[in-house]
Amino acid sequence: MKKYSLFLSLLMLVMISLSPATSFASEFNFAVTTEIPDNQIDKSKTYFNLLVNPGEKQTLSIKLRNDTDKEVVIEPQIHSATTNMNGVVEYGKTDSNPDKSLKYNLADILTTNKEVTIPAKSEKKLEMKLNAPTDEFEGLIAGGITLIEKQSEADKKSLKSEGLSIENKYAYVVGVTLQQNKAEVNQDLKLNSVKAGQVNARNAILAELQNPTPTYLNQFEIVEAKVTKKGQVKTLFETDKQHMQVAPNTNFKFPIPLEGASLEPGKYTLHLKAKSSKEAWEFSGDFEIKANEAKAFNEKDVSIPEKEMNYLLVIIIGIVLLVLALFIIILLKRKKDDKNKGSDSE
């Protein structure tokens, strides 16, 4: 039987700018209501935006409502905020490693049960234990609570019988920020490294940018990112990007795409300008592309057209073949003339 894959995108609904306390989505079998505690800094927000004291313990609650005719099982996951290469802050599970500047992982501070079951046509409260760091800290600890609906065995069997498989699940994410005071933190940005790489099987130069500070870089943009040969001014590749945000204490690899061009071995320099709503930065970083590295990436790049034969080589081969053909023709003609002379002499 022909098998189709059912792609359900991971819907990250982070409640940051919403005013109502309850949110619904037709894709979900449950509704989410955050129960805002007294130490909420901005009570108009529906994510947890908390002012905490060192060593403070607290219980946070989220009300889950199931309006369907069958029970729904939710799997809560807690993660620190990360930044993806598109400059989008993510609050769910990612494959990226925590940044070295991250002092507190939200998963170590906020804990809850692995599962919560909501009976049909009823409500259930999800409780989480918050243990604030005993030490004083600056800025924000940021992350999110991801609520994923667990697929029932009946649904699995139904999909299997139809030849379908689910690769991604819908998820609801409730943001969490913790802070001990409202003092602003000075923003900073670092260029950690530059190297050749690939994005979606396409060649790119990857600039690893790091926000080592416990604050968001809002209205972040790459004003200019240019790649030149080292010591030269001619731009080989360039890009820019607006409307980004960088999470506290995170890093991400910003790509400068080659747009179908091959990587060439050599020494290069990246020139990058970036800014946020409050600061601006300018970097230059040298890097080298090795021959074996370029070859490996070029072979995997799906956007590079089939390599055409070298025109000079074609011309040389053509000339050689032409000379060879002329030589053979002359040789055959001489043999024929010699044969004719032999016949005449008889």
Automatic annotation (TrEMBL):
Domain WxL Interacting Protein host binding: 162-299
First and last residue of the signal peptide: 1-25
Pfam families assigned: WxLIP_HBD, WxLIP_PGBD
InterPro entries in the cross-refs: WxLIP_HBD, WxLIP_PGBD
Keyword Nucleotide-binding carried by entry: no
Entry's transmembrane regions: 311-332
KW Transmembrane (keyword) present: yes
Residue stretches making up the WxL Interacting Protein peptidoglycan binding domain: 30-148
Record keywords, A-Z: Membrane, Signal, Transmembrane, Transmembrane helix
Name recorded for this polypeptide: Uncharacterized protein DUF916
